[in-house]
Design goal:
Layout (H helix, E strand, L loop, with lengths): L1 E7 L3 H12 L4 E4 L14 E3 L13 E12 L4 E13 L1 H15 L2 E3 L2 E7 L2 E6 L2 E12 L7 H4 L11 E10 L7 E6 L8 E6 L4 E8 L8 H12 L4 E11 L7 E2 L2 E3 L15 H19 L6 H27 L2 H14 L10 H11 L4 H4 L3 H8 L1
Parallel strand pairs: 1-2, 1-9, 2-6, 4-11, 9-16
Antiparallel strand pairs: 3-5, 4-5, 7-8, 8-9, 10-13, 10-14, 11-12, 12-13, 15-16
Bound molecules: flavin-adenine dinucleotide (FAD).
């Protein structure tokens, strides 16, 4: 077998890349190690409406439409903000599979139960039906998620240290009372050290209830904190599904080498604060597809992908990486001030027109104590505005 482009991993990054390439008339091979696309899954399934900038949505992918968010502190103080049409909670098992099917309809080829296990020159070594096979490529793309090996085979440093990850656990709970239009974030150093608990509605009486914690701050496993929260908040719920996972919170220095590039979680493009990575994964694949098209025509190099990433994604992610560093240093009293700020300035407000930086400015103005922390990121804000 030989293909111009071989993509390892059929998550949102890999399948959307296969789709975008096919739409440009470039048939690729997309391989997935599991026996089903979209299963098993580690995700809370929340996406912003900006997903529509890249993909035409289908009704059957959408479990709920969100129009606001609730922020709750561990002591019970809570406020709700409005953000009309902020995003969706997806059914990713259907979404992931349909995305791959769309790529196939447009001309891509998909092989399941095909695991990339190594590289020899311009050939990918795969294990398929218990046999070892070789697949030739001109360009290889690592879309193989947070555990990516493709980058490592080419000498890209994709390792993550303990302070560079969120460690996560989640249940799909049924039999609970929730507002299906509001996603909830529960914060506090005792309830979710270095992270937060999310309640993402998947219908009127069910939700993805999960947690991400920083392993350097948490004394227990994420499941310990999550179980405790569910016992207190949803004592009568039933558990339909459990999952665990890791989200990277460290931006890579290099995203391509020779004739390989990384997209999505393999490129560590998840938001360092929220842990969200679906839209960034698809965005990176959009950029990769246009660069690959030109490179195959002999115009430009894969390093152009890094330049496009820097312009369109990395600047914002770097600011958020700094903000996470600050968040990890917050003290108990800082959390109280934060929640008081939210109750006073954001409660029951429509925040769709207020940017992150504007909120940050309001925060510093209202609580001069945060100026001390702002010193870390002001140079970055200046850089962004230039
Ligand atoms: C607990 C948790 C909650 C999350 N919640 C959200 C959320 O609400 N919103 C959001 O936007 N993001 C969320 N994320 C992040 C989101 O899941 C990822 O950003 C997204 O899945 C990235 O897509 P991807 O295609 O890059 O990687 P993945 O979805 O991880 O896909 C990688 C694929 O590659 C395959 N693969 C790996 N190695 C090989 C190999 N050697 N050979 C063949 N195939 C291989 C895997 O089986 C997998 O199918 C969450 C993550 C976790 C862990």
């Amino acid at each position: 077998m030989e293909y111009d482009v071989v993509i390892v991993g059929a998550g949102p990054a890999g399948s959307s890349l296969a789709l975008f390439l096919a739409q440009e008339g470039i048939p690729s091979l997309l391989i997935e190690r599991h026996s089903q696309i979209g299963v098993p899954l580690s995700c809370a399934e929340g996406v912003g409406r900006d997903i529509e900038d890249y993909i035409e949505m289908e009704e059957r992918w959408i479990c709920t439409r969100l129009s606001g968010a609730r922020f709750t502190y561990q002591d019970g103080q809570s406020f709700k903000t409005y953000y009309p049409q902020v995003g969706y909670i997806l059914d990713r098992k259907i979404f992931d599979r349909d995305l791959a099917a769309r790529a196939v309809s447009s001309g891509a080829k998909v092989l399941i139960e095909t695991e990339a296990i190594g590289i020899e020159g311009n050939e990918l070594i795969v294990k398929r039906n218990k046999k070892i096979e070789k697949i030739g490529f001109k360009i290889l793309v690592g879309a193989d998620g947070v555990e990516s090996r493709v980058g490592r085979w080419f000498g890209l440093n994709t390792s993550l240290k303990r302070d560079e990850i969120h460690s996560c656990a989640q249940y799909l709970l049924a039999g609970i009372e929730i507002d299906p239009t509001v996603g909830e974030f529960v914060i506090g150093p005792d309830i979710a050290p270095g992270g937060y608990i999310w309640i993402f509605p998947k219908g009127k009486d069910r939700a993805n209830v999960g947690i991400g914690v920083s392993p350097i701050l948490a004394k227990h496993s994420p499941l310990f904190y999550l179980e405790r929260f569910i016992r207190e908040r949803f004592p009568k719920s039933s558990r339909l599904e459990r999952m665990r996972g890791v989200v990277g919170a460290k931006i890579l220095k290099e995203f391509s080498k020779k004739n390989v590039l990384l997209v999505g979680d393999a490129a560590r493009l998840t938001d360092p604060i929220s842990g969200g990575g679906i839209v960034n994964a698809i965005h990176s694949s959009k950029l990769a597809s246009s660069v690959i098209k030109r490179v195959l025509k002999g115009d430009g190099s894969l390093k152009d992908y890094e330049r496009r990433l820097e312009e369109e994604l990395l600047k914002e992610l770097k600011v958020r990486e700094k903000l996470r560093e600050i968040a990890l240093k917050l003290k108990r009293e800082d959390f109280s001030l934060l929640i008081q700020f939210g109750m006073k300035n954001l409660k029951d407000r429509d925040i769709s027109q207020i940017g992150t930086m504007e909120i940050f400015g309001m925060l510093i103005k209202s609580t001069p104590r945060f100026l001390r922390l702002a010193g870390h990121i002001l140079p970055l804000i200046g850089f962004l505005k230039r």
